[in-house]
What we know:
Elements: H1 3-9, H2 37-42, H3 49-60, H4 68-75, H5 82-87, H6 95-109, H7 115-127, E1 154-157, H8 160-164, H9 167-180, E2 184-185, H10 196-199, H11 204-220, E3 225-228, H12 231-244, E4 250-253, H13 254-264, E5 276-279, E6 298-303, E7 306-310, H14 324-332, E8 337-338, H15 357-360, H16 362-378, E9 383-386, H17 389-402, E10 407-410, H18 411-418, H19 423-433
Parallel strand pairs: 1-2, 1-3, 3-4, 5-8, 5-9, 9-10
Antiparallel strand pairs: 6-7
Helix pairs in contact: 3-6, 9-18, 13-14, 16-17
Bound molecules: iron/sulfur cluster (2 copies).
Amino acid sequence: MDEEEYQKMIKRCVRCSVCKWIPQVQIKSQKYASGCPAIDIYNYHPYSGGGKIILALAYEMGRIKPSEELRDIVYKCTVCGNCAVACKYMSTLEPIEIMMKLREKLVDTGCGPMPQQKTYIEAVKKVNNPYNEPHEKRMDWIPDDIHLDPKAKVLYYVGCTSSYRRKEMAIAAARIMNEAGISFNVLQEDEFCCGSPILRTGDSNTFEEILNKNLDIIESKGIETVVFSCAGCYDTFKVDYPLSRKYDFKVKHTVELFDELIESGQLKLTNNVPITVTYHDPCHLGRNAERYEDWDGDVVPLMPLISINIPPKPKRTGSKGIYDAPRNILKKIPGLKFVEMERIQEYAYCCGAGAGVKSAFPEMAIKTAKIRIEEAEDSGADILVSACPFCSTNLQDGIMDKNSKLKYFDISELILMALGLEPEKLKQATAEVA
Length: 434
Ligand code: SF4
Ligand code: SF4
């Protein structure tokens, strides 16, 4: 969003507070009516999407100055996107874009980002990952049985979290592609952080350097399709990179690829997996993974706070996220019973980890995860699955902290069980829920 559009948009919030909830027509119970983790945890208007827009306006009017208090409110937000979806029922505002611009302004003054986020940004600059792990250990996750093809046109972009923290996801994704006969390669020592954790803090200059480095490498290799098992990497490549630089290759999340492979018969799910499962939609695979459509029009003021877009601006409602593919997969696993939580798809509740919250505000991350875990428990499921290594880490932390009986698996691990490739894990999963 350019500065002119920002200056106009921050004057258009009508203070309705719709962004604190999931849209009214989607509410199924009072318990699961809210949609904003920042409001659920801190319960004070400035933490909401609309509240942050008022802060942005007050900042521009000189009524508030950069301060630790302002920074605290602006960064206690997972950039989950619920407010952006809910607000579309009221207006054509983009609360997330306003928040990101406000973060950029705080970074420019030296007030932002949070100290813990500065630490991981330095780590990315030094060793190419936010965990400050040695770059040369990035590919240590690859077991001997994985077959890579140096001439492949399909690239598996593993991402930092699966490479260093959630190796089971990378291994499962690679084994499934091998089983389906997909010829793929990884970037080895040329794979670096996608830049998502940096972008979400508002450090757009560092992000630009990273995206250019990554696109230069991938384009130099003649890659046709890049596959991601991390929702954060996927969203960053799919939605954020093209805003700065267009590219020609296709991007796919593993759930999209695996759904296609099951549908075409290249993957045969034959093994019984007798468990009850619910699925958590990652924000960056769901509502946030909807691309922006180009729009060249005017914002015409009608009366104070009310404007119209001429011609009408395409609304980014979150409905074009990836919702069917993971559900198709789960419904095709023999013996598996699939149940839904109350807040799903573009109205799903965040896991609590994103946009630097896990590092800077671990208490917010864990409280949010526990709200989502309770919702999963209420669905009647024994197993919670998702499709993002960052959700995986935080939801598993939430399960432990809550002492929940729920077990967590990545969806790719369930596919391996259904392919008969993980008999021990299947035995363990079914024994635990028996
Ligand atoms: S951001 Fe949108 S939904 Fe929230 S208070 Fe403002 S107009 Fe209402
Ligand atoms: S992005 Fe999510 S956490 Fe942040 S204000 Fe909007 S709904 Fe709340």
